[in-house]
Design a protein that fits this description.
The structure holds two protein chains of two kinds. By secondary structure, chain A is mainly α. Helix content of chain A is 65%, strand content 2%. Chain A has one domain. Chain B has one domain (2-151): Aminopeptidase. Helices cover 24% and strands 34% of the residues of chain B. Chain B has helices at 29-32, 91-106, 122-128, 142-151; strands at residues 2-5, 11-18, 43-49, 55-64, 69-77, 88-89, 112-115, 132-134, 137-141. Chain B is globular. Classes of the chains: A mainly alpha, B alpha+beta.
Amino acid sequence: MHKEKINIEDFKELVDSRKKSKDEKNADSLALLNARRESFENSNSADQMVMHLYRLKLMLEEEAKTEELTSKFHTYSSTYVDLLYKTRKSFASDIGFSETQVSLILSGRRPATEEFVSKIRTHSSKIYQKINIDFNSLNWFTVYHLDKMHDYLNTHKKDKVSLKNINNIIMLYDVK
Amino acid sequence: MYIIDTDTNKKIEIEIVPVDNQDYHKLTIERYFFNWKEEENFNVYKLIIKGQNDIFGLVSLDFIDSESRIEIRLLAVGAENRGRHKKYDRIAGCLIGFAARKAIMTYSNFPCISLVPKTELREYYKKTYYMTDGGKSVFTEGINLIKLSIDYA
């Protein structure tokens, strides 16, 4: 390492956490786990819910950035609903859908409709606003269209999905 | 994510992407302080201004799956952006915030990031990055991890 002429201020932008030995690594892991246990015991279910919703937001953002599809629309939507509701029936009632429709969509047995995406978009906008987290609800539509295009291309064995095409579709919806 | 030009206070959009094999020959100890070639087996990311090639900062991450934790093994900001006379600010913060987002996306239950600071800077890291003591390391998890991720989004 190059340590000459280095001021302590500079170390604010330099981190070296590498351990010298396995013993040192184990001791550090143990101390960390003990400290985290304390923090875990002080956490509550509301904090955990915020964490799960924030994670979902990041995953939707990542999905919407690329042309690949990591998970299908119904995986994200069912994660969202199951986080917030004990039963899918309650969610169905809140968005004015039948229990069967919602159940089929969330399990991936029936494709989502634009109306469903629109409902989940409105619903999630309110939820994320409540927990004070900036959320681009249009990402639901991006993932929905990506999913649809992947399905179409798989069936018709065409080339890659173009995110440009999807972005053109998304522009048709009202801008956030 | 953005860094700030300290002369103009302008926000500059950046991205953090994996280091390419061809990058390693550019990562000199004079500019990036450590021997980054030694980190090739870890997950090393570089911070660049969108559409440019110059590397402003680097971070090497160790994903410790058994603990739902990412350890920041090494982090370095380019020499010209360290200390009081830096040209761009927030580079280290963006790299730490990036690690926070990676942890949240990788570990669904109780994600955490940690690092071992210099003793003299322990309080600085705790205050700046919402960290808590955990042995030699400092760590952040839970709501503080989200705050860190949002601050440097």
